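Two quick folds needed for the group meeting slides. Do the first one here.
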Amino acid sequence: MISTYAEFWDFYVGEHSKPATRWLHFVGTTLGVCLLAYFIATGRWYYFPLFFVVGYAFAWFAHFFIEKNRPATFKYPFWSFISDFKMIWLMLTGRMSAEVERVRSNV
């Protein structure tokens, strides 16, 4: 049982070990955020749930068909949601690969 975010983060990184998985998360989350901004800007707030559908569709596809594991969202939805954004930030700043290597070396 994972009890701290630090423990969860290492688990999360291990579950996203393949670059294709990370990039599909990046695409899904980015498209989801863009849709959310569009819905807010145009006053179509009732489409808000599509933000989650788009974001998670890409991520879950990656888990089921690339990583071949179960998405962390099912057991840790809040930490998983936050970690998607942390992972994207680390990808944008060029530090995510080093984070994957750090976690791999601790296993």
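Then this one, please, same format:
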Amino acid sequence: MRDTLTLRFLYRTVPGRALLKILVQPKVSRAAGCILSARVSKRLVPYYIRKHKIDMNGIDIPAGGFSSFNDFFTRKRIMESFDLTPGHLISPCDGFLTPVEIGREAVFSLKNTCYSLGELLKDDNMAKRFEGGLALIFRLTPANYHRYCYAAEGYVIRSRKIPGKLHCVRPVALGAVPVFVQNSREYQAVVTDRFRTMVQMEVGALLVGRIRNHRLSADAQYVQAGAEKGYFEFGGSTIVLLLQKDTVFLREALYQRMDENGEMPVRMGECVAQAKDQ
């Protein structure tokens, strides 16, 4: 409740917006990142686990404990489970999924805010490929596991980093500013066998939300579903999958999980959609 009131102050009041202009600057995030990577920050870990009710079962805890808060935040699980059935698209992360149809002119609407894929991708030609398709938006909360994987296997044909600010990605912020086209983000376009061309994008968020993608070597542009793509440092963040028209349909069982915000809780590696040609 306190977090929600703070965000409403920042995004819906005049003094809050004045403060927000400072907080969303990358240099503020870099400073926060340095603090949370210092050894003294590990004292925050027990409090954070209690506050967010984080289940530490199955987590790979170093012999001497976590060296810093960010070391804890980017923790690894000992075991993962992935649905690698051919024609299944898996969730790239733990979080909350919102499916959104992409309309004409490659535009979609989320929380009363319209987004142009041309602005999102900084590539109008790439954006046109997804007219009439589907955007799967995965919101990670601070309590979620912040490592993520590839949602499908295929060949990476383009990688791009887009600098920007770092707004919050909570629903209260999404309805106030066009967060996704303002925030720092990275994406890859992947040519797949069953889903044609797919875009997988990571979006940073307020205060840190730093994107740490693993670098692909020049001779290894083929990626596998379930392979770790990277991780976010501290901050709630977002992953966006863009899928072309008539390539997938969502699992019906997901709609039974939908909450009042239209979001569906998902876990990394579970099937969220199937190829339409199955």
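Slide caption for protein two: Residues 83-275 form one domain.
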